[in-house]
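Table 4 source record.
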Amino acid sequence: MAETKTSEFAGTGRRKTAVARVRLAHGSGKVVVNGRPIENYFLTETLRGVVLQPLNITETAARFDIQINVKGGGPAGQAGAVRHGIARALIEADANFRPTLKSNGLLTRASPGLGSASSIASANRKGISAAPLVQTRGAFAFVAQGF
């Protein structure tokens, strides 16, 4: 069976409850999110920086046109999901990017940190040690005093 080279690469990214479907095609660096330019969808420079991080790290920002469909979550979760999807699509385009992207932590779905009461309960169910009470609730930690 003959292998065919595709000029379009797909990646799915997830962060919290947001899901992004990303398509990379060789082009001039145009990024479209849900039918709108990235500047009109992600309004802050910080969120745009998060989205474009994989392209900046691999120095491929001007090589690909990117079409993104994202849904669910809030702006920060969506930006993280898009970043994850772009990183996965870049690996499809060129497997040599994998070590660079992995060392920068762009290939793992970011899990929520341990910090809220609900995440402590979740951590207990999973068998993960949670942060001490003094950090999460602002209450005093129990200290045994030997009198």
